[in-house]
């Protein structure tokens, strides 16, 4: 029995490894819906694989597979209590339980019910991930907290000094795949289109990463987006729990847009110029 339990736990680790392999496919990791659904499918298939013995408890086996994957995820990833990560953990466990239960039904020749049980967690994960992305794009109007960021010349610039400009702050890191594959190219494109406007200020704020790695990456990718560094915990002041995260501030120092996550459907390259254009028309504070 112990050997069987250890095998199931190890299968969870295998599922996590395969999930990471699938998730790095372009277009999947940068979209939370595809990312969570892909993980659910991988855990489902791995849990389904292998026959059940009459003495084994399918519920326990499913939980062990899920916990094996969750343990690997908690060890390998930077968990900060983000809702997307908690949903991913839940989906892994539920998909593992469904996979083992589906195998039991399949072996007992209840094939139709087995297919229904297998489809359920995939549909559930897609639904959860869809609703997760809904609040990621928030148009608001609230005063920004006082913060400061370190810019390229080593000096600091504070939020009050940015008043009178429309400001775009994009928090990113070299280890953040959605940042470098999706968010930064879009921001770079928008920045270049507005580069000649002195009333618009862009900063790519390095968050949870080293200055050397960020500068090496920027030089290699020929980024023209100005870099800044979160050395004074500006991200914490703004409520950033992980990249990518984009804020747009108006001339009066109010946060007008808050984009959390790197969803491909967010349309940042079209929404951002439209918002900046509207904010530039607003009167500057006295």
List its salient traits.
Glutaredoxin, 9 helices, alpha+beta
Question: What's the arrangement of secondary structure elements?
Answer:
Layout: H1 2-23, H2 32-48, H3 58-76, H4 83-107, H5 111-133, E1 137-143, E2 148-151, E3 156-158, E4 166-172, H6 177-194, E5 200-206, H7 211-221, E6 227-229, H8 234-238, E7 245-249, E8 254-260, H9 268-280
Parallel strand pairs: 4-5, 5-6
Antiparallel strand pairs: 1-8, 2-3, 2-6, 4-7, 7-8
Helix pairs in contact: 1-2, 1-3, 2-4, 2-5, 3-4, 4-5, 6-9
Summarize the structure in short:
This protein is of the alpha+beta class and 286 residues long. Helices cover 53% and strands 15% of the residues. It has an 8-stranded mixed sheet with strand order 1-8-7-4-5-6-2-3.
Fold and architecture overview:
With 286 residues, the protein is an alpha+beta fold. Helices cover 53% and strands 15% of the residues. The longest helix has 25 residues. It is built from 9 helices and 8 strands. The protein is elongated. Strands 1-8-7-4-5-6-2-3 form an 8-stranded mixed sheet. The model has no long low-confidence stretch (mean pLDDT 78). It folds into 2 domains: 133 residues, no CATH class; 137 residues, Glutaredoxin.
């Amino acid at each position: 029995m112990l050997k069987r339990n250890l095998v199931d736990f190890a299968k969870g680790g295998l599922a996590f490894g395969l999930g990471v392999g699938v998730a790095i496919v372009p277009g999947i990791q940068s979209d939370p819906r595809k990312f969570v659904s892909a993980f659910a499918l991988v855990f489902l298939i791995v849990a389904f694989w292998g026959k059940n013995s009459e003495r084994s408890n399918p519920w326990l086996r499913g939980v062990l597979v899920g916990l094996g994957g969750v343990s690997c995820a908690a060890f390998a990833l930077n968990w900060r209590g983000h809702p997307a990560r908690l949903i991913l953990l839940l989906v892994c466990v539920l998909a593992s339980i469904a996979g083992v239960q589906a195998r039991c039904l399949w072996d007992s020749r209840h094939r139709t019910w087995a297919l229904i049980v297998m489809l359920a967690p995939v549909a559930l994960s897609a639904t959860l991930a869809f609703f997760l992305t809904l609040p990621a794009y928030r148009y608001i109007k609230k005063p920004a907290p006082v913060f400061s960021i370190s810019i390229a010349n080593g000096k600091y610039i504070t939020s009050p000094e940015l008043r009178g400009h429309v400001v775009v702050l994009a928090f990113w890191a070299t280890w953040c795949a959605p940042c470098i594959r999706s968010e930064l190219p879009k921001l770079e494109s928008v920045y270049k289109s507005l580069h000649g406007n002195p009333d618009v200020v862009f900063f790519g704020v390095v968050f949870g990463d080293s200055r050397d790695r960020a500068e090496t990456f920027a030089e290699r990718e020929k980024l023209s987006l100005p870099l800044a560094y979160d050395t004074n915990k500006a991200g914490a002041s703004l409520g950033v729990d992980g990249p990518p995260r984009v804020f747009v501030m108006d001339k009066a120092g109010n946060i007008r847009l808050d984009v959390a996550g790197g969803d491909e459907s967010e349309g940042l390259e079209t929404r951002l110029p439209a918002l900046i254009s509207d904010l530039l028309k607003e009167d500057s504070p006295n």
